[in-house]
Amino acid sequence: MLREKIYKIDYCSEKILALLLIISEYIAIIVAEKISLVIQNNIPYTIGRFYIPDIYFYLVIPAIYIFFIEHTKVNERFIFFWETMQRTFYAVLYSEIFCIIALYIFKSSNYLSRSYIVIFFIVSFLSLYLFRQLLVKTCNILNILKTPVIFVGNGKATEDIIYFTNHNNCFGIKVADIVEDIEDINQLRKNIIRKIEQLKVKTIIIAIPNLEKNKLLDLVEDIQPLVRNLMFVPNTIGIPVYNLEIKKFYQSNMILLGIKNNLAKKTNRRIKRLFDLLVGLIICILILPILIIVSIAIKLDSKGPVFFNAKRIGKNGKLFKCYKFRSMHQNADELLKQYLNKNPEQRVEWNKFQKLKGNDIRVTKVGQFIRKYSLDELPQIFNVLKGEMSLVGPRPYLPREQELMKSFYHIIITTVPGITGYWQVSGRSDVTFKGRLKMDNWYVRNWSIWIDIVLLIKTIKVVFGGKGAV
Fold first, then answer.
1. Which end of the chain has a smaller Cβ tally under 10 Å, C or N?
2. Residue 442 pLDDT
3. Containing H/E element for 391?
4. Are 352 and 265 in contact (CB under 8 A)?
């Protein structure tokens, strides 16, 4: 009885959360408007002070933004945070376009300013995203406003969904119960219905990807009338799902799944290249003093050249010269050979990671520091500007690693390698060689400009923490 009351109270959490989101979005938009006005009115050489009437400032503009936030489903659960960024971007874009059109229709275009439009676009996007993430963090820390869910199936799919919601900066779920998967479908159905009646939970997730179609259909037909939300995990394991599109054939009760290869489109490749050039030039200017300081430190620390320009596998398998600061002694290969001969137990580690974790005798004192914070890879910015590499992409593999890459090779070489990537922000040297290949394969199959932006942001956090580096 107590558990029933607890979950009845939890049903109110959806409405409370919806209200909190609207309040948070409203405050975020007002804050963005005020900040944008301050910036606008302090730009040199502007004529007079720009202002927005209160009716627009406090009512019309916030209402339009909140409408498009709902329309683009920014607050939907079970989405990656880069999808949240993407949807927020489009909500802001649609809102600004609608506001401009509305002001012209109602002959209020005198309240428009081109510079303010640009400023408000950037500030409102950042404000909305940050306010939402603040609310998410607060709710998750306090362990409140989580949707109670009954899972059907106690396998890896259930574990992955629970892990996803707890580690992806999204509104969490509360595991009300897990109904164990059993062969007897009738008994399984009875167990689920009993849990629904006992706990009064209105969200069910059937997490049994290999469940036979007829059994799944029977469960859906019997359970759907009893709950508000019913979700199931289809058997799409191994298929790249980020760019998956669903086409619905309503009369046939059938869906058609479509997979887009975004990097196959010339337009997307041009967008990625333009992004690399613009951001790369800015980064190049900012890191120039660091490049000079590191160069001097390497020269003073050990004999040999400042740079170590090794051949790497590029797009379409073409080899290119990858620029890096030298972090090892000149006779590194000989030192490695001698070390592995004397320490055969370390050979197992080398074969698994293609790296020596811990104290690598080949690495210089300065090399240890610049590797920890990935400063050795900064010269690769010149590879990016030349078009041989991208800011974000698969790891630049060595020619000797081609055989080890096996079937992943032909997928990974369809794009240029990157300075950073998925595996670098997911453990770096703690990830096995095969693990890196799988992550690079995922990146190529699921690429979007939003993934690049988020991986760059996460790279800054990982690098400053020195996590997983060698």
1. N
2. 87
3. strand 390-392
4. no
Look at 339 and 403; give whichever has higher pLDDT.
403
Instruction: Give me the sign of the Cα torsion angle 322, 328, 334, 339.
Output: negative
Our CA angle for 210, 213, 217, nearest 5°, is 120
pLDDT tens, position by position, 30-64: 999 999 999 988 887 666 677 788 888 999 999 99
Length of the chain: 470
Q: Which of 355, 415, 426 is nearest to 391 (CA)?
A: 415
| Cβ neighbours of residue 385 closer than 8 Å, sequence gap 6 or more | 276, 277, 280, 281, 284
For tokens 């890896």, what's the residue?
A: 156
The upper half-sphere exposure of residue 402, i.e. CA atoms within 13 Å in the direction of its Cβ, equals: 12
250 near 243, Cβ under 8 Å?
A: no
**What CATH number does domain 147-237 carry, 3.20.20.140, 2.60.40.1890, 3.40.50.620, 3.40.50.720?**
3.40.50.720
pLDDT band at 292 (very low <50, low <70, confident <90, very high): very high
Task: Check if the beta carbon of residue 64 is closer than 8 Å to that of residue 96.
Answer: no
Contact 83, 107 (CB under 8 A): no
Collect all residues with Cβ–Cβ distance below 8 Å to 353 and sequence separation of at least 6. Answer: 429, 432, 433
Q: Does the structure show a pLDDT above 70 at 199?
A: yes
Do residues 346 and 356 lie in contact, with contact meaning Cβ atoms separated by under 8 Å?
yes
| Domain spans of the chain, in order of start | 2-142, 147-237, 266-328+363-465
